[in-house]
Design brief:
The relative contact order is 0.12. Helix 7 packs parallel to helix 9. Helix 6 links the parallel strand 7 and strand 8. It is globular, with a radius of gyration of 27 Å. The two termini are 47 Å apart. Helices cover 36% and strands 13% of the residues.
Length: 345
């Protein structure tokens, strides 16, 4: 199989220009006749023979136009040909936009629309152009909340923007998961990669709670854990991009974590081994998430471009901004919890 072509983010491809309307032969046909109306010869309209399907050629034209399923089949075959021959493009992080749009988002969308029935609010707070850092709470035992947030931005943003998630090291050592994460635009949660993405105008998503968030017990649901040392604030300050707080309600209940087998987790080399009402008692069936009702709300952006460059090294400023983002997310979580009617409806 041929290798995919790697392209830089700032590659600006020229697009074919459309011909202006009214040019060429069409313009000649639409031109006004120089003869006065009285001098013009009577217009003779040729009568075309009528067939069983109307004027001649109409049946052939209707038959020649492919139906919807034929167009989808042709598009699918063209997509497969490009994958087999390597005629597709990925960026320097491994992001495959075509595969993400046509395959990965299509696989996640039924879970997003039908199973969790995600309601999105405030997506217009994400800028239409330029970089931004989306900071969200993390929960759910398995990191499905990041994927649902990615679909929310992809399907609902007016400018059709894509969210590039920063993921933990564990994601990139797991077979298959590593490749899929790279293809979907995820990259390592480090300041260097985040700054490179932000400086090129990408929307970057980060969940500062990390494993402390998704691995917390059910009794502590919707109580934000520590947001690290504020590294995400320093990254936003260096790039001069706004910070968009994001609150996710519904993910906490998909796998109610009532226990943690720490010894087994150490043996397996994972952060925690969850025990839920269904897992591991029901085996693989216990890994099916509960069909909770989700709400994802993007809050008002916190601007950072007004600070001087040296502000990224000011620990007090980073602490204050980190606390501001955390408090905004926590306050929105409480507000959404008060407003929701039920966990499942």
């Amino acid at each position: 199989m041929a290798d995919a072509k790697v392209i830089p983010f700032d590659d600006d491809r020229s697009r074919a220009r459309r011909r202006p309307a009214g040019s060429g032969a069409a313009a000649g046909r639409d031109a006004v006749s120089p003869l006065p109306a009285q001098a013009r010869p009577p217009l003779e309209v040729a009568q075309e023979p009528q067939g069983p399907q109307g004027p001649s050629g109409a049946g052939e034209a209707a038959g020649a136009s492919p139906s919807g399923w034929e167009r989808r089949l042709a598009g699918g075959l063209a997509f497969l040909r490009r994958r087999v021959t390597g005629e597709y493009e990925v960026d320097e992080f491994g992001y495959d936009e075509e595969l993400t749009d046509q395959v990965l988002m299509s696989l996640l969308r039924p879970l997003y629309e039908k199973y969790f029935r995600v309601e999105v609010k405030g997506v217009e707070n994400i800028p239409s152009k330029g970089g931004a850092l989306v900071v969200a709470n993390h929960s759910g035992t398995l990191p499905l909340d990041g994927l649902m947030m990615q679909v929310a931005v992809h399907d609902n943003h007016p400018a059709g923007r894509h969210l590039r998630l920063l993921a933990a090291d564990l994601v990139f050592v797991l077979p298959v998961v590593n490749e899929l994460a790279r293809k979907a635009g995820h990259t390592l949660a480090c300041a260097e990669d985040a700054e490179r993405l932000l400086s090129r105008g990408e929307i970057v998503g980060v969940m500062p709670e990390g494993f402390k968030g998704i691995g917390k017990p059910f009794g502590e649901r919707y109580k934000l854990q520590r947001f690290g040392r504020g590294g995400f604030v320093s990254t936003a300050l260096r790039a001069g991009v706004p910070i968009v707080p994001c609150s996710i309600v519904g993910a906490e209940e998909i796998y109610p974590m009532i226990g943690n087998a720490k010894t087994l987790a150490r043996i397996l080399g994972i952060p925690y081994f969850p025990i839920t009402p269904t897992f591991p008692w029901l085996g693989p069936l216990g890994a099916v998430p509960l069909p909770t009702k989700w709400t994802i709300q993007f809050g008002e952006p916190i601007e950072t471009d007004g600070y001087p460059p040296e502000a990224a090294e000011d620990p007090m400023l980073m602490f204050n901004l980190t606390d501001q983002v955390r408090e905004q997310i926590q306050h929105t979580l409480y507000k959404l919890l008060v407003q929701r009617r039920s966990v499942f409806f």
